[in-house]
Design brief:
Elements (H helix, E strand, L loop, with lengths): L1 E6 L3 E7 L5 E8 L11 E2 L1 H15 L6 E6 L5 E4 L9 E2 L7 H8 L2 H11 L8 H13 L9 E4 L1 H9 L6 E3 H4 L5 E2 L4 E2 L1 H7 L8 E3 L7 E4 L2 E10 H8 L5 E4 L3 E6 L9 E8 L2 E10 L3 H9 L10 H6 L8 E3 L17 E3 L7 H22 L2 H5 L4 E4 L6 H11 L3 E4 L4 H9 L9 E5 L6 H15 L2
Parallel strand pairs: 1-5, 5-14, 9-12, 15-21, 21-22
Antiparallel strand pairs: 1-2, 2-3, 4-7, 6-8, 10-11, 13-14, 15-16, 16-18, 17-18, 19-20, 22-23
């Protein structure tokens, strides 16, 4: 049996998975979201590790032979390797504090082009590099900390280091490829980028295959090898057999097979590496997904629970001409506009909460269509269906709207834990046979709706 640690943006979980891919037991704990100021997002790394350990112990049994880790990506921690104490809270992938650093880097067109060619990423505060730079400039230097005593990691590295009691400072290629420091073609940290950004190589973990041995964790007196590590989106992609998928989580993330053709505005990441062989994928990162529904619930008070959104949206026949741009955290792929702000267009005296709720759901599907619009013709032709998972994929109204917008079937599976299952599958100790819950076939062509939405988006971002 395998325990998958699935460490997300709002909670950490441990799942006990048998060799047939059946989830036997789950433990989950939420952790605190810290917002020091507008657009800043932090987590407490010690709280994350402690709650992760509690979850693992809760599902532990004598038959466990290995651990797999899948994690929120890009989130950045620097800690003292001698004391194990973080120098600051984890800076979360959503955090925009380093936007000005990125703005300055983007002005260097030659370097910006080099970043994209080498790492597959756009210069953006989303990724780890500028977060590391901010920590060096604002914490390491002012406190006169000895940089030689410090090490960096994304959440996977932080968990591995703690579980192995400091024996392993490691990451895998899928997580390394999200730092904006990693050459995805040569599979190594890039010296030119590190030198330009003044980031010491000594900070960085060693990068190994996704299915390598990451060391031994000691749980309840038992030593268990950590056999696989994958970033959360790559883990779900792997579970689908490297076929096109969209995860509707806090954000919405599309991973698509990489054709070798550069698609403007889309990222190229390392999907995984096994036995020294890497597989790349295209990625469309949309920062706002389920968090838009949470906003309607928590801040706007439209609904009392996220599950009520579908009924509210279906209480009206359409959005009543209302269009919503879900840029609550800027716009990710393919626009990469950090200054964009969420906006609602077409409101009249007759506009109701239900109209806005329906426009919100539709906006999630419009953003997915944006990613398909950025694909070259050949890549688009190879995608005959889209696999979906994540909380919002349970919303039939949204999935049917998505099928109508993309004009391809949307395939939802009965298995809802694709991220955890994909990481477990990577260990080689688990078999996985997916079963389909529902296929949403296109019923009408909604291209005119998308074009109308794009008009409002153009008003917002000016292109």
């Amino acid at each position: 049996m395998i325990i998958t640690i699935d460490e997300g943006t709002s909670s950490t979980r441990a799942l006990l998975i048998d060799q047939n891919g059946q989830i036997l037991k789950t433990s989950q704990q939420e952790f605190k979201q810290i917002y020091p100021q507008s657009s800043w997002v932090e987590h407490d790394p010690i709280e994350i590790y402690q709650k992760t350990l509690e979850c693992v112990k809760a599902v532990m049994n004598e038959s466990v032979t290995g651990i797999a880790i899948t994690n929120q990506r890009e989130t950045t921690i620097i800690w003292d390797k001698n004391t194990g104490k973080p120098i600051y809270n984890a800076i979360v992938w959503q955090c925009k504090r380093s936007a000005n650093i990125c703005k300055a880097l983007k002005s260097q067109q030659q370097f910006s082009d080099y970043i994209y060619k080498t790492t597959g990423l756009i210069i953006d505060s989303y990724f780890s590099a500028s977060k590391i730079m901010w920590l060096i400039d604002n914490i390491v230097k002012p406190k006169k900390l000895n940089i030689e005593d410090l090490i960096f990691g994304t959440i996977d590295t932080w968990l591995i280091w703690n579980l192995t009691k400091g024996a392993s400072h490691l990451t895998d290629t899928s997580n390394a490829s999200r730092t904006m420091l990693y050459d995805i073609h040569q599979n190594q940290w890039d010296d030119l980028i590190l030198e330009t950004l003044a980031i010491p190589k000594s900070l960085l973990p060693k990068v190994i295959d996704s299915n390598a041995n990451f060391g031994e964790a000691e749980i309840n007196g038992k030593k268990i090898p950590i056999l696989a590590v994958l970033g959360d989106q790559q883990a779900a992609y792997y579970a689908y057999g490297a076929k096109a998928k969209a995860t509707y989580g806090t954000g919405t993330f599309l991973l698509l097979p990489n054709s070798g053709i550069i698609n403007k505005g889309l990222l190229v990441s390392n999907a995984h590496s096994k036995s020294g062989i890497s597989q790349l994928c295209n990625e469309g990162s949309i920062f706002v997904g389920g968090s838009l529904i949470q906003w309607l619930k928590d801040e706007m008070k439209f609904i009392k629970s996220s599950s009520e959104i579908e009924a509210l949206a279906n209480s009206v026949k359409d959005s009543g001409g209302v269009y919503l741009i879900p840029a609550l955290a800027g716009l990710g792929a393919p626009y990469w506009n950090e200054n964009a702000r969420g906006s609602i267009f077409g409101i009249t005296r007759a506009t109701s909460q239900a109209n806005i709720a329906r426009a919100a759901l539709e906006s999630l599907a419009f953003r997915v269509r944006d990613i398909f619009e950025a694909l070259d013709d050949e890549s688009r032709k190879t995608i005959s269906e889209l696999n979906v998972d994540g909380g919002a994929s349970r919303n039939d109204t949204l999935m049917q709207f998505q099928a109508d917008l993309l004009q391809i079937p949307i395939k939802r599976h009965k298995d809802t834990e694709m991220t955890a299952l994909g990481a477990a599958l990577m260990t080689g100790h688990v078999n996985l046979e997916l079963s389909v819950d529902k296929v949403f076939e296109p019923k009408q062509n909604l291209d005119h709706r998308y074009q109308e939405w794009k008009k409002y988006l153009s008003l917002l971002i000016g292109n």
